[in-house]
Amino acid sequence: MSGNSPDLQTPPVAPAGGATDGSPVKVPLMAATAGAGLAVIGSFLPWAEVSIDGLSETSGGLAGDGVFTLSLAVLTGVFMIVGLVARKSWAPLAGAVAALATLIVVGLNLGAERQVRSDLESEGAASADIDMVLDMAELSTGVGVWVVLVGALVATGAGAFAAAKSRAA
Length: 169
What we know:
Blueprint (H helix, E strand, L loop, with lengths): L25 H19 L1 E7 L2 E6 L5 H20 L5 H17 L5 H10 L4 H10 L1 E4 L1 H26 L1
Antiparallel strand pairs: 1-2, 1-3
């Protein structure tokens, strides 16, 4: 052979950078990051709809517990990105815990009454008036709650899977 042939005894050089080199946690970390992104988006969407006599009003997530889901989802995404880029083995577990907290907060809001009550209280309505409105109104859970729920489920599951894989690796 010619002098230009590659030396078959030289091991390949691993690429520099985070978990983007085909490591077993790359896909779960990307999925968890996407789930956190969904939870961020859902935090801005409507969380409740109130209908009384044909009139309807929506309540956005940031008017209530959406502030908490937004903060926790951003924290989840940061931890997952740290796990992806810096390959810190603690990051997926920390992200999964933050995603689980997001899941708990959104779970408390699956019924629209909590969000509507929070909105009316922030406007200074008396408790008796709020109860009367809630009795007369037709309530429905907004799309934002469901988007946050799906995102938090994905982030929790994929983050826990990534944490288990990073411990095993």
